[in-house]
Amino acid sequence: MRVFLTGATGFIGARIVPELLAAGHHVLGLTRSDAGAQALEAAGAQAHRGALEDLDSLRAGAAAADAVIHTAFDHDFAHFAANCEKDRRAIAALGSALKGTDRPLIITSGTGMGDAGHGQPATEDVFNANHPNPRVASELAGHALLEDGIDVRVVRLPQVHDTVKQGLITPFIAISREKGVAAYVGDGANCWPAAHVLDVAKLYVLVLDKGSRGARYHAVAEEGIPARDIAQCVGAGLGVPVVSLSGGDAAPHFGWFAMFAGMDLRASGVWTRRQLGWEPTGPSLMADLQHMDYSVGAAPARR
Fold first, then answer.
1. Which residues contact residue 40 at a Cβ distance below 8 angstroms, ignoring those fewer than 6 apart?
2. What sign results for the dihedral spanned by CA atoms 135, 124, 257, 239?
3. Is 7 in contact with 13 (CB distance < 8 Å)?
4. Distance CA 237, CA 245 (A)
5. pLDDT tens, residue order, the chain (303 aa)
6. DSSP character for 156?
7. In what order do the strands lie in the sheet with 105-110?
8. Quick check: 38 and 19 in contact, CB under 8 A?
9. Ordered DSSP codes for 157-184
10. Sign of the CA dihedral running 16, 37, 9, 71
11. 3-state DSSP assignment of residue 33
12. How far apart are CA 287 and CA 163, in angstroms?
């Protein structure tokens, strides 16, 4: 198949490109820059110039492909709600080009959308349309397209990691460096799920080749790592103290990150593994955190 891949030069998308090519697919990758186009062509893919804000470019890319994988997202978490709304518009545009066909559209969401609110790990069979996380907009957009007859499939992401990036933990490291302490909320027993980026890339291709219309898949290799353990590892890496904060102290310390810091985001990927035969083999989150180079300064934490 010819696959239109948004986010093709990004953290996850750049790993999906070789997986698609190895599976025999052709890749049309979205990029806004000359450097991105050159990287895609060097990898064996074709570049499609455009951007998330350029809805016509998204429609054109989708119209020229047999399938679409949408991984692009603006990760400026200081403007998270606005960026989730941008993603909703992008998904609607991609879907409009597929209407009346059986070509699949694979969109990206977060595992939190599978949290039913009863204290158990999030699961693939649940979609909490009232979830307070603004990322719910992505799945609402996908659900609307599904009702319009489009083959929409969802990949829900945990904290996707290697030794350079670790999802929301990357800005947590930047905040810890800036503040001079690695902090967690309360007893730090709230947990975050995780998966290595190479395992996640493989899952997207499995969802394309073996997935089902309307299904949601969890890219979860580890169900939950306690926030306290993450903070202790980051503190050791940075050489800063590890402290517990009360809920009331979280907002002034973390800023925009406070909405995530105390969340318990446990999630299961058991159903996904059974359905697709996905077997994660990459390093654990803690292994990557232990082996990253903390001497390399991250971008300043956004406030």
1. 8, 9, 17, 27, 29, 31, 46, 47
2. negative
3. yes
4. 20
5. 999 999 999 999 999 999 999 999 999 999 999 999 999 999 999 999 999 999 999 999 999 999 999 999 998 877 889 999 999 999 999 999 999 999 999 999 999 999 998 889 999 999 989 888 899 999 999 999 999 999 999 999 999 999 999 999 999 999 999 999 999 999 999 999 999 999 999 999 999 999 999 999 999 999 999 999 999 999 999 999 999 999 899 999 999 999 899 999 999 999 999 999 999 999 999 999 999 999 876 443 332
6. E
7. 46-49, 26-31, 2-6, 67-70, 105-110, 152-157, 216-218
8. no
9. E-EEE-SS-BTTHHHHHHHHHHHTSEEE
10. negative
11. coil
12. 8
Residue 46's identity, in one-letter code, is: Q
Residues in the chain: 303
Give Cβ neighbours of residue 136 (< 8 Å, ≥ 6 apart): 84, 113, 128, 129, 130
- Residue 188 DSSP symbol: -
Q: Which two tokens stand for residue 212?
A: 């089902």
